[in-house]
Each structure stands twice: as structure tokens, then as C-alpha cells.
Amino acid sequence: MLIALIAKDKKDHLETRKANRDAHLAYIKETGVVAQAGPFLDDAGMMCGSLVILDVADMAAAQTWANNDPYAKAGLFETTELIQWNKVI
User: Fold this and answer.
1) Mind giving me the DSSP string for 16-80?
2) 89 part of a folded domain
3) What is the pLDDT of residues 61-83, one digit of tens each?
4) Range of the structural domain that residue 13 is part of
């Protein structure tokens, strides 16, 4: 099951993102369930959120993954949303 994790950063939290980026990327690599991922960019080209496509068994597994992401644990996100996603192209 593909699940899109859409997360928007809290205002003025770019340094939190930068400080936790290595741990976040290591988590992605260690868990092996991320099909695609990348940051959202604001008008100035600065990272301001995340899109992560998870390939997991169910929504509960996606929620567990999201809860354990170092970015989430660091309090980076203002909002997060998990939505089932269907890859067409």
C-alpha cells in the first residue's frame, strides 16, 4: 500500500530541519519503506516541508513510521497528513 506523508514545517524551523536531516535520511535508509521523498520549497527556495511516499502494509504502519521519523520527534512539523496514494505514472 502506498501512503503519501505530507508534512508542513513550523514557521522559522529551518534550523531544526537542518539539525535533524542526517538522522532523518538515515531513518529512511534503515527502514527501507520509502519509495520517494523530498522537501517542499518556499518562494525563496528554502526547505519548508516534506513529501514522503511510503510503501507499507497498512495505514497503521505508515502512522508508526511517521511518528518515529526524527523530524517528527524533533517537533519540526506544524501539520502532517497521511493519504493513501495510487501511482499512475
Assistant:
1) HHHHHHHHHHHHHHHH--EEEEEEEE-TTS-EEEEEEEEE-SSHHHHHHHHHHSHHHHTT-EEEE
2) no
3) 999 999 999 999 999 999 999 99
4) 2-84
